[in-house]
Amino acid sequence: MIRNLEIIGEAARNIERDHPEFAAAHPEIPWEDMYLMRNRVSHGYFAVDAGVVWQTL
């Protein structure tokens, strides 16, 4: 589950960076939030609350 969030978050960042017109055309997708979640689970693994992660999904 954590690894999937990392992959999705990194993909979201790549889309924002490499295809900004696509990201802008889809404002309903929380691009930045997905990347921030990726950072949280990647860099704060032992501090991650699994309950919060499940609520996010």
Beta-strand content estimate = under 5%
Q: How many distinct beta strands?
A: 0
The rounded distance between the terminal residues' Cα atoms is: 9 Å
Indicate how many domains the architecture comprises. 1
Mean pLDDT: 87
In helices, the fraction of residues equals over 70%
Protein name: DUF86 domain-containing protein
GO molecular function: hydrolase activity; nucleotide binding; RNA nuclease activity
Organism: Paraburkholderia solisilvae
Keywords: Hydrolase, Nuclease, Nucleotide-binding, Phosphoprotein, Toxin-antitoxin system
Which key terms come to mind for this protein?
single chain, 57 residues, mainly alpha, elongated, HepT-like, DUF86 domain-containing protein, toxin-antitoxin system
Describe it.
By secondary structure, the chain is an all-alpha fold. The protein has one domain (2-56). Helix content is 75%, strand content 0%. The chain has helices at residues 2-18, 20-25, 31-43, 50-56. The termini are close together. The relative contact order is 0.21. The mean pLDDT is 87. This is DUF86 domain-containing protein. InterPro entries: HepT-like, HepT_RNase_toxin. GO terms for molecular function: hydrolase activity; nucleotide binding; RNA nuclease activity. Keywords: Hydrolase, Nuclease, Nucleotide-binding, Phosphoprotein, Toxin-antitoxin system.
